[in-house]
Specification:
By secondary structure, this protein is an alpha+beta fold. 44% of the residues lie in helices and 22% in strands.
């Protein structure tokens, strides 16, 4: 192996060159660092200016939230009589029109009850007509009793005059007096009978007599219960949460299905409390749905603000008087009515997520 010898001046020159290169490299790094910091400053300044311009032109004129969901005033379908399910012509997801048959219940018991009520109504009519006839008969009896009183009074007066002349016996006078008193008692009884019979029909005709009205009410109730064996849709919508099955015995108030009015849905947008100081009823709202994405924009208007926050209406409301209190920003539901024409073109379903932005300038 051959050794290379380097003299002193050459070593000095070599070390000097390395120092120059290192110095140049350090200067370049410092210059690059300055340029980077300058560029970062420019970017931050541009961001601040852009953010300020965006806030001035856009943000301060609107508030937005993605904590918004589609909702609707759904109808819970419940039976109003106890019966057995006979037929269920609909299933979940089926669209129905108002008046469409949702459920048929066994009508056997209701038909029997209607027939019984109808018979009772007819019997009540006959009874009341008899009351009117009896009242007329009692009035005729009074005329007969008055005639008897007049006749027996004359007979008693004649016999009393004859008795004063000793022309008849005391027994004959007593018999005439008893006949007169009996006729008076019969007249009083006839008048009481007429009063009692007139009390049954006083102030009414046959159709408006209390007995007839009561029987008619029972008949109407039976007829109503018979009509309730067929359950119909209260409005246009989509069937959901169907639990009714053929042969099932159902009770009054038992939820069998729901009808969701998808053409009348609205949005409940939950805004932070600090965003609501300028929100007013009637302000325009633009919304997008996760279902259709940003390509479809819905338009609506603020219907109103809820009377309380979600935590205030919770089943177990927050107990802020405890020592472990931590402030949490509250959200208040804002109800937004949607354009029905847009809903018809792009239907929504209850529970879908929405993003809502309220224009505060209007």
């Amino acid at each position: 192996m051959t050794d290379i010898a380097i003299s002193g001046p050459e070593i000095t020159s070599f070390l000097g060159d390395k120092q120059v290169v290192a110095a140049n490299h350090s200067a370049q790094r410092k210059q690059l660092r300055k340029r980077l910091f300058a560029g970062l400053g420019i970017v931050l300044l541009a961001g601040a200016v852009g953010g300020g311009g965006w806030y001035y032109e856009v943000a301060q004129h609107s508030v937005s939230t993605d904590d918004a969901y589609v909702d609707a005033d759904s109808a819970q379908i419940t039976p109003q009589i106890n019966a057995t399910v006979l037929d269920v012509p609909v299933t979940d997801t089926v669209r129905v029109k108002r008046g469409h048959v949702l459920l048929r219940l066994d009508a056997s018991d209701a038909e029997l009850a209607f027939a019984q009520a109808e018979a009772n109504y007819g019997q009540a009519l006959r009874h009341v007509r008899q009351y009117f006839a009896n009242s007329g008969e009692a009035a005729a009896q009074i005329s007969a009793r008055e005639s008897d009183v007049t006749r027996t009074k004359l007979d008693y007066d004649r016999r009393l005059a004859l008795a004063q002349q000793n022309a008849i016996s005391a027994e004959q006078l007593s018999t005439a007096r008893n006949a007169f008193e009996t006729a008076q008692a019969d007249l009083t009884a006839a008048r009481e009978t007429l009063a009692s019979r007139q009390a049954l029909i006083h102030g009414s005709d046959v159709e408006h007599n209390p007995e007839v009205l009561s029987a008619k009410a029972a008949l109407d109730t039976a007829k109503l219960n018979l009509s309730r064996t067929v359950i119909r849709a209260p409005f246009d919508g989509v069937v959901a949460q169907k639990t009714a099955e053929i042969g099932q015995r159902v009770q009054v108030g038992q939820v069998l299905m729901s009808v969701v009015p998808v053409n009348r849905v609205y949005v409940d947008a939950n805004f932070k409390e600090g965003q609501l100081n300028r929100v007013r009823t009637g302000q325009p709202v633009t919304l997008t749905s996760d279902l259709y994405g940003s390509t479809v924009t819905f338009h609506g208007r603020v219907m109103g603000l809820s009377g309380g926050t979600g935590s205030a209406f919770a089943v177990i409301p927050a107990q802020n008087a405890t020592g472990n209190w931590i402030k949490v920003v509250q959200r208040l539901p804002v109800r937004v009515a949607l354009d029905p024409d847009e809903l018809a073109m792009h239907p929504l379903r209850v529970g879908l997520s929405m993003t809502a932005s309220i224009d505060l300038t209007k």
